[in-house]
Design brief:
about 0% strand; 6 helices; mainly alpha; globular; Helix Hairpins
């Protein structure tokens, strides 16, 4: 990884740690605690909402809007991982495992379940 990739992973890892630390926080004062308290279905709904907002903003040719919506999507995705007890490290490992593998071949080799 180059320095930019290293710092990106560090920022996302730090955000994941903050999210994890909010699991037992007061939902009245922490949005993250509120989401975690609401459960996986609500968090998943928010991930979907943010993904749609990313797609919509990509058509507006407004780079700042897409960046903002992407940040929201990544945050909500990290909350969803936390709710499912998935660490970013597990996802980074899966991405590393796929490096150098044709996307078509990788997808064809997935176990259907």
């Amino acid at each position: 990884m180059d320095n930019c990739q290293d710092s990106t992973a560090i920022v996302l890892d730090q955000l994941a740690n903050v999210i994890k630390s909010r699991k037992n926080a007061d939902p009245e004062i922490s949005y993250t605690a509120q989401l975690l308290n609401d459960g996986i279905s609500e968090i998943a709904r928010k991930v979907g909402e943010e993904a749609v907002e990313c797609v919509v903003s990509s058509f507006s040719n407004n780079k700042k809007e897409l960046i903002d919506e992407s940040a929201d999507l990544l945050y909500h995705l990290l909350v969803l991982w936390t709710a499912n007890e998935i660490s970013p490290y597990e996802v980074w490992n899966e991405i590393s495992r796929r490096e150098g593998v044709s996307g078509i071949l990788e997808k064809a080799g997935r176990v259907k379940g």
